[in-house]
Amino acid sequence: MGRYSSSGPIKSTAGFEVGAGGSEATATHVTIIDSSGNITVPAGANVAGARPYALKADDYTITAAESGTVFGMATDAKAFTLPAVAEGLFYTFVNTGADDNNLIDIVINDGVIAGTFNEAAAVTVVSVATTIRNTKVGANKGDFVTLASDGVGWFIVASSGLWAQQAP
Amino acid sequence: MGRYSHSGPIKSTGGFEVGAGGSESTGTHTGIIDSSGNITSPGSIAGASPYSLKADDYTVTAAESGTIFGMATNAKTFTLPAAAAGLTYTFINTGAATNNNILIDSGTVEIFGTFVLAASIVIASAETLLTNTQGSSIKGDSVTLVSDGTGWFIIGSTGIWAATAP
Q1: How large is the ipTM?
Q2: CATH code for the structural domain at B51-164
Q3: How far from the centroid of its chain's Cα atoms is residue A66's Cα?
């Protein structure tokens, strides 16, 4: 059978499936997009594509819908504020400004940030921070941190550069 | 309503949506795949990343964004595509310890970031070549890069890497 085309969006209240051929009764169906919008590809398939990238120049409050985004900031003394914790949310923040130019804060509203920053010859253990800061002096273009949420708090899952924690 | 099946590809110039019932005018619609092919889920996205093992020099394409590349052969180079916002790749040395010299070449596009080593750091500041040094390499050494459309940024790494501007 050929391609089915539509000029408008195609909507399903039950989601979208792919599968091997055959009649409706005998075909094998694998759900790719469920009715809630969750996307899952089957074993042997994969997910590819660029990550969303957003360069900001001022304070910015992030939404849950932006999970997965890489945020850049090249402006001094600005803050990213995270959304409410929710399982699986993750974001990457990159200092894209010149060396020693940017102080960048990442602020949370609930929970705490926990994890470890590995530095040149030291380790900064973060346990109860509500803000983490890429300090202006000592910052390098390309310093970054990736945070992920378990629905209770936030965890540092990757980083480089000098970051400080600020407890409540 | 039951399942609608079609054995050919289904094409929509307007994208694909899911949502609660109701008529076209009253239903709740959430775009999952827009007309440009961007995928955005209000829930979760799960699935394996593409993995590609190479055994020779390889020029990476933009369409391979998200791929994890392995290399188990000595003295080979991955060449990055033109910078474009959001492109991301991970490169893993899958060869034996001290066996592989692996290079990642960005051409003239600058790479920024920091490799954190055991007791020191290597800062990439406007470099164009990353090298997983053979003599100190360990199976599993890796680096993940993302582009902002202008340059490349290191957003993850393990092992000992050098950053140079040849």
Answers
A1: 0.87
A2: 2.60.120
A3: 7
